[in-house]
Design goal:
Helix content is 33%, strand content 23%. By secondary structure, the chain is an alpha/beta fold. The chain has one domain (4-204): Rossmann fold. The radius of gyration is 16 Å and the shape is globular. The structure holds S-adenosylmethionine. S-adenosylmethionine (SAM) is lined by residues 12, 14-15, 27, 31, 35, 53-57, 60, 77-79, 82, 104-105, 121-123, 126-127.
């Protein structure tokens, strides 16, 4: 039987209900220093079109909006609870230059070549089919567009969190690098902190036009 703490932690994968909202509030606060470090690795352009995948409570979207003050920021998450929370967090810009909707990384509802930057904070652990997901990220990125992955944990041998959270897969930096290379990314830079925290910035090589434009 699952412990209460384990039941609560399932909300990190897909927040739901009251506990999900508490988790989203906690992540908006608790992930701030990690995501600010990752965001500081990017040479921001004011007019960028940015997508944040697995946007959770939307705090990172708010930070991105500040860094691209004339741009547009899209957020997507497969949890309805996350989408509602992120929309609330960004209510002032919502519908103007911030757009947040429900969806899965494996089938992104955006045009080919739309974004200058795609971000993924604390979420790749839960992407079921990494190749499919990365091909979707590449499809929606402009050629030479950037993909930023940020993970607090990156040592698969350390199962402290993956033992507690169902379907959580911890990827090593080498594994992520290989997956990125296999799915259309190059110029991959890995940034590390003394702990297991890593950020990876990769560039989309060729735009992939095989899929129909969406919107
Ligand atoms: C640990 S939370 C991180 C939230 C936020 N990025 C942050 O750093 O605070 C992971 C989020 O990714 C979302 N997620 C997980 N798998 C996803 C998928 N396949 N497609 C879209 N969102 C996903 C979850 O619903 C959850 O909101």
């Amino acid at each position: 039987m699952k412990s209460i703490s384990s039941k609560i932690l399932q909300n990190a994968r897909k927040p739901k209900g009251f506990v999900g909202r508490l988790m989203l509030k906690g992540m908006n606060i608790g992930h701030a220093s990690l995501s600010n470090w990752a965001l500081s690795l990017i040479n921001w352009q004011p007019q960028w079109q940015v997508l944040d995948i697995g946007c959770g409570g939307g705090a990172n979207i708010a930070e991105i909006l500040k860094r691209s003050p004339r741009g547009e920021v899209y957020g997507i998450d497969f949890s309805a609870e996350s989408v509602a929370y992120a929309q609330k967090t960004n209510k002032k810009t919502l519908g103007k230059r911030c757009f947040i909707e429900q969806g899965n990384v494996e089938s992104l509802p955006y045009n080919n070549n739309k974004f200058d930057l795609v971000t993924a904070f604390e979420t790749v652990y839960f992407w079921k089919d990494m190749s499919k997901a990365l091909q979707e990220v590449r499809r929606v990125l402009k050629t030479n567009g950037l993909f930023l992955i940020c993970c607090e944990v990156s040592n698969p041998a350390n199962t402290k969190w993956s033992d507690l959270i169902e379907e959580m897969v911890i990827h090593s930096e080498n594994e992520l690098q290989t997956l990125l290379e296999q799915n259309g990314f190059s110029n991959i830079s890995v940034y590390k902190q003394p702990t297991e925290k890593i950020s990876i910035v990769a560039q989309a090589i060729n735009s992939n036009t095989k899929k129909e434009n969406k919107k």
